[in-house]
Protein 1
Amino acid sequence: MARNIADDNFGSVEELRPRFDVYGELPRIDLGADFPTLQRVSKRLQLKLRQLHRYTTPEGVTRLADAFAARECPSLDYETMAYDFAYVYFLQNFWKAALLFHRSTILARTILDLGTGSGATALAYLTSLNDFLREQGFKINPKFEVHVTFLDRSRKQLRLASELLAEISAEWRNLTVFPHYEIAEIADWKPKSHFDVVLMGHVLNENRTHITTILDRAFELADSNARLFVIERNGDPCWEQVQSGVSQLALPYAEGRVAGQIQFFRPLRSRLGRGLSSTESRYVILRCPEEKVLVNLLRKYFRAWSTRSKTLLNEVFTETAEYYEKPFSRPLCGLQAIQKYWEDRVLPQKNIKIRILRVAYTSLDAFAEWESRFAIGNTRVDVRGCLVLRLDSSSQRIARLSEYYGSVKK
């Protein structure tokens, strides 16, 4: 039930470009009738956040700005910097996320916000979900119930998230929200269930050495047909790693930008050392298929190739699997024949690099476009192709593989 991003048309999407104007020390937004709940929620948030002014310091604000601009983001102690961060960045992150979610909300009963901080991304999603229900004409009595998990390692940040949610929840006239606050590291947390939506707003840039781990964890925590959202500033240095991690996830995705400008006035202008700040952000929206096992099998197949592992083939194919290497040739029949093919064709390859370009899934099939580069002796080989995997539901392994490819030797 996503809006404006069709299930079968995932690609680049350019979003709105409003301008945010600051009056006094905090921004004020004017987006018109399309964002009724956002208008009301923003006013409440502004009043609440304005109270943090007395707890902020010029040194804290400057340190945050320098850290986020650095090529390698240093470790930040949000127990001591929670108020500085929320005062300067909460509304920016909230509005950018809300603009994206206004175009891409899905009906979700369970939401997880990884590295939530003070909750800007999750609260933006709830605000958009409230308007989504209104626009779709839902007549729900009682209100639509949604459980939201705020996960962070900072107790002070989570307390702020709790206070801000309490401040604005009355404006969600179509929602009943059940919040859950978890103090934990993303990698260590063990929930009891999966989630319809997993949010990653401005968390990867601060964890650049763990981007692949966080994306993998988000996929593990997501339910079938779930959505995963990644939001970071357009100029952040994490995007090359994010794109690599997204490719390795092997999920269909959409990407695009939301953009605007914020005019900072005194005293924020003096603290930040600038008067105008771009709010342009990039996003990626990933979609989990109905059968997540197909994603795992596809990834495991490519991992078996890149690591030249015959053992992993046992976890990918059934004993009677058919492997169609070429469209008009007879298939390799059975796991042993596939392993023999691996010995003859894959084991001689060295320095194998594989990139998954695009994927699609049905309930029983996985489709993947890919490219690879490897060496055989002194010859470099570039290959580009597509493959189709057919799932055997009973064994949860691949019963048939068909591939189509071309190669160039250099």
Protein 2
Amino acid sequence: MSIIRFVDNLQNSKPGNKLILRDFNWPSINWVNWSSHSSTENKFLDTMRTNSLNQYIDKPTRARGKTLHISNDYFVDNIDYDAPFGKSDHCVLLIDCNITADKRDHTEKLALSRGDYDGLCNSFQLNWHDLLIPYGDNNDDMWLVFKTEI
């Protein structure tokens, strides 16, 4: 999947803050005026505009280029550039984000008192072998018989 399709799919998947970090290797993008001489890079810039994305990195983040940090909202407060970790040529980015998590209490509770336990017990008395053998290797048909009997 191309990065352009990935960004479009990500933006359309679920609402909320998105943060993308990647080494794009697109050195000819001019982030001051959001332009490039490359058609591929211009398609990417158009995708960023369409999806209301922002680019925050303003310094080189590796010895041979720049990692981009892209987000769909202004929730990044600060970015610190630290020394590379181990043998990597990528610097370590410490990103302070200002986000709040939604408090969700959607615990599904089953109404176990409404179960047909007598019917379930009776289904265990069925001769499942005789019921399912006519369907041979057809798992879909066997599943339908199983669901109908339970």
